[in-house]
Amino acid sequence: MPTYVYAKKSDANEDGCAECRASFEAVQRMSDAPLEKCPKCGAPIERVLQAPMLGNIDNSLKGPSDSALKQAGFTKFKRAGKGQYEKQYGTGPGRLG
Ligand SMILES: [Zn+2]
Questions:
Q1: 10 alpha carbon to ligand 1 midpoint, in Å?
Q2: Residues with a beta carbon under 5 angstroms from ion ligand 1
Q3: pTM, full prediction
Q4: With 0-12 CB in 10 A as exposed, 13-18 as middle and 19+ as buried, what is 41?
Q5: How far, in Å, CA of 65 to CA of 58, rounded?
Q6: What is d(CA 82, CA 85) in angstroms, rounded to the nearest whole number?
Q7: Higher confidence at residue 23 or residue 65?
């Protein structure tokens, strides 16, 4: 299931809690309606657009080598299917999507 990032609406009057002020992730089905309220404090929230993951923009562009990225502490994800990514190395979450 896709993971969406939510954050407190910037024009909301509520202060929000630590989570929605900093933004948080919610795993939802594609068919689920977007969340409108923070599940913790009830402040109005909105979905934040995420940047596409590494390698998705232009596969013909050659970036730094894997070993350089690994040494620099990056986490690399490999596309494992529609909207899903599996970690190849690094300290990030084991699976996205
Ligand atoms: Zn909150």
A1: 13
A2: 16-17, 20, 38, 40-41, 43
A3: 0.51
A4: middle
A5: 16
A6: 8
A7: 23
